[in-house]
Every structure is written in structure tokens, then in C-alpha cells.
Write a structure and sequence with these properties.
The protein is of the alpha/beta class. It has 20 helices and 13 strands. Strands 7-6-8-9-10-11-13-12 form an eight-stranded mixed sheet, sandwiched between helices.
């Protein structure tokens, strides 16, 4: 499988001012695979050490940070002779070694010629608990589930992908039935690499759902392992509320959906835990569509989304037939799947999304992003019914802006808004 982050890794390797690289992301988004695959392709040797399984790492770092001694220890543990420009050093699950992250500071300051990558599925949790982080001494990349374009590539649909990249809307429209069928499959499978690989190899939907279920169980195990008992209960309650939160017409997060009388103070830490673990994304409201959007952020109002569409379908227990056959997935569930899908594609492109809602009327814009020097309001429609009164009024009130509508219709430029097919979103963010 090809991942978009590979090109970023190449730029990192060839950068003369390269720093030790930290790859963050939720459990099972493919961090270990991409590091080992990159090392296998781009280096003569790879020293791979899983700090969760290799207990000698803690002893190795217990005395000091003498780089020569540590390099000798890494060679002894791995059995590989480390050469500065020909060997990639990978320290996986680095958070399991208390002094592991701090080691990177010394590699940066004393041995920058060495190529070192580290990763951890719960780095955000660890850092929020006061672990020292070598700020300014490392490069950081975040890995997300596979986006729709990566899914197409994994499915062997390179030619369809090339057509999307061409922006030849007439040709794209001719091929729309193929794209819609693949989009249905992506709605079910999602972007977790193990689920995608299983589906590509076998098309066994029961196996895919089992994989998704096991990933969700692994997340819950992490919660019970790394949070207190009282924290675990609240984190689980927030997670369990997501299907109900996103199936509402207004998808703003409501604490009362978790339980009657719930307050923000009761669940704020639980939400932050899930964000830090990479399991959910938080999209804050903006009060005005002005540059920079961050200045107009209202952190008291927000939406929460799961990290992956396939995991969301599994959590909601939506039958495969509802997704893969017929139009139910596009017309039911209050557009929850379409909005989750769009959010995932935006995030994969390292664009920070917000949403806008009026304080006086029910008007709402699903997402608002800042693209280069432009603000782009985004309306998401799950099907071909594309009436968008909120977006039309929003553009009327902000005539210097042009909207984008993602729907199941083909491409149309209406002047004030461009309609882009949902399956072509990646080339239009």
C-alpha cells in the first residue's frame, strides 16, 4: 500500500537540517508499517526496536545520554552495525520508556548525522501528563487513517485516481457510477490499513467488520489501562455518545446526550483524553468568517467526530447491506456518514476545519476552512438534494467568499458556489 506521508518522509531524509522524527497518530493507523517500509526501501539497514517489548531499553537509558554508549547498546540489542547515513534507527512505542523522548534532544545536539524515527500511539496522553518533550529538537509528523485517494490506490484503481487528479469533470461524470460504488465501499471499510488490506485481498466484509471491532476494543483497552477507573467511565460515555451526537440534524456536541444533567466540567477531561489519543477530532465553532479563523474561534461550541469512517460504521452497527447496496447510506442518518467522510478527508490534508452557526437563527455551515489566503465555507449534502439555504445566505452576507458544496451531484459552478462530487473531494481541498 502507498501512503501520502511517504513523500514527506523522503523530504525529511534529504533535508540537511533534519532532526529526529516523531510520528504521532492513533493506534493502528499504520505508523509501524510506514516506518519499516520506508526504512526497507530507502536505507541499507534498519534498526527496529519496540520499546514496549524490549525491556533492555529502559536500562540502557537509565544512567546517562552518552550517545556513543547508547549507539553501542542499540547495535548490541539489534545485532546490526549502525552507519550514520545508511541505517535508519526506529524506536517504536517510545512512550513506554520514561527517558526515551528526552534522548532525541541529545541525538539532535550531539549526533545529528544519524537518522532516527520514533512513534507512539499514546504520545499525546503521555505528554499531557507532564513528560518532558524536546521542543524545537525534533520534527513531527502526524499519520491519519487512509483517505479516499489512498483507498483507491490500494484497490488498484490508479487510472480512476489519475482521472480525478485531471479535474476533467466531463470524464469524471462519465465514470461517476464507478466512483460511487468505490465510495460506498470506503464508507464501509474506512481507512484503517489492516481493514483496507483485508478488504483488498479477500473482499470478506465479515472479516473487515471483525478487524474494526477489534480496533475499537483495543482503544477501550487503552482507556482502561492508561486512565483511572473514574476517568475510564467518562471517556467511555463520551465515546458511546458519538453515534447519537452525529445522527442529530444539528451535530453540535450536547453534554445532555451523554446523560441527563451532564455538565461540561464533568466531561472536559474525558474529551481531551480521546483527542490526545487521536481517537476523536474536535471541530470548534467560529463566530465570524474572517482571517485568520483562529481569532474567531468559540471553544465552548464544537462537534466531535471519530477518527475513521469505517470504525464509525462499526460502532453504529450499520449492516453492510445498508452501506454497500441501495441509497440508504446517502439518504439516512441525517448526513452523519457524509459529514464524517468529509471531515476525515480534510484532516488528512493537514487542514484545520471549523464550523459556523448563527447565534440568532438555525443557520449553520458544516465546515469552514482556511485555504492559502482564502476562507472557504463548505456545505455537505449526503445525496442529490442540494438545497443549501444556510450557505446561500452566508455567501450573501459575505459576498467576498465563494462556497463549496460536496454532494452526489456532478461538478457545477454556480458562481457563488461550486458543487463538487463527494468522491472528488481530495483533489479539491
Amino acid at each position: 500500500m502507498k501512503r501520502d506521508i511517504y513523500e514527506e518522509l523522503l523530504r525529511w531524509k534529504n533535508n540537511l537540517n533534519r532532526k529526529p522524527l516523531v510520528i504521532t497518530g492513533a493506534r493502528q493507523v499504520g505508523k509501524t508499517w510506514i516506518m519499516r517500509e520506508f526504512g526497507r526501501n530507502e536505507y541499507d539497514d534498519v534498526v527496529y526496536i519496540n520499546c514496549d517489548n524490549e525491556k533492555r531499553m529502559e536500562a540502557l537509558l537509565s544512567d546517562d545520554y552518552n550517545i556513543d554508549r547508547i549507539l553501542l547498546g542499540l547495535q548490541a540489542i539489534s545485532g546490526i552495525n549502525i552507519k550514520s547515513d545508511k541505517t535508519l534507527i526506529i524506536l517504536d512505542e517510545i512512550q513506554e520508556v520514561p527517558r526515551g523522548l528526552h534522548l532525541l534532544k541529545y541525538f539532535y545536539e550531539e549526533a545529528p548525522e544519524y537518522h532516527i524515527m520514533v512513534a507512539g500511539s499514546l504520545l499525546g496522553i503521555i505528554l499531557n501528563r507532564g513528560v518532558s518533550f524536546p521542543v524545537g529538537k525534533v520534527d513531527i509528523m502526524e499519520l491519519h487513517p487512509m483517505n479516499f485517494n489512498e483507498f483507491l490506490e490500494a484497490m488498484g484503481q490508479e487510472q480512476l485516481l489519475k482521472v480525478l487528479d485531471s479535474n476533467d469533470w466531463k470524464l469524471i461524470d462519465i465514470l461517476s457510477s464507478k466512483y460511487i460504488e468505490l465510495l460506498r465501499q470506503y464508507y464501509f471499510v474506512g481507512g484503517m490499513p489492516e481493514a483496507v488490506l483485508s478488504y483488498c485481498n479477500s473482499k470478506d466484509i465479515a472479516q473487515v467488520r471483525d478487524i474494526q471491532s477489534n480496533i475499537l476494543k483495543a482503544y477501550r483497552n487503552d482507556i482502561s489501562k492508561h486512565a483511572t477507573k473514574s476517568e475510564s467511565v467518562k471517556i467511555g460515555q463520551v465515546l458511546d455518545s458519538l453515534p447519537s451526537q452525529l445522527s442529530k440534524e444539528n451535530k453540535k456536541f450536547i453534554y445532555g446526550v451523554i446523560k441527563s444533567g451532564a455538565r461540561a466540567s464533568e466531561f472536559e477531561l474525558a474529551i481531551q483524553w480521546l483527542i490526545d489519543a487521536g481517537i476523536i477530532h474536535k471541530v470548534n465553532r467560529i463566530k465570524e468568517a474572517r482571517m485568520p479563523l483562529k481569532f474567531y474561534e468559540d471553544i465552548s461550541a464544537f462537534k466531535l467526530f471519530l477518527l475513521d469512517l469505517g470504525l464509525f460504521a462499526c460502532m453504529c452497527e450499520v449492516p453492510a447491506s445498508e452501506i454497500l447496496i441501495g441509497n440508504n447510506i446517502f439518504i439516512e442518518y441525517k448526513g452523519a456518514f457524509a459529514e464524517q467522510y468529509v471531515l476525515q478527508q480534510i484532516i488528512s490534508r493537514k487542514v484545520k476545519p471549523y464550523y459556523w452557526s448563527s447565534e440568532k437563527t438555525p443557520s449553520e455551515i458544516d465546515f469552514v476552512i482556511q485555504r492559502d489566503d482564502k476562507i472557504v465555507p463548505i456545505e455537505v449534502k449526503a445525496e442529490v438534494n442540494v438545497k443549501a439555504r444556510s450557505l446561500r445566505q452566508f455567501i450573501t452576507n459575505n459576498p467576498d467568499l465563494k462556497g463549496v458544496r460536496y454532494s452526489m451531484l456532478g461538478y457545477i459552478d454556480q458562481g457563488w458556489v461550486e458543487n463538487v462530487p463527494l468522491y472528488a473531494i481530495d483533489s479539491y481541498i
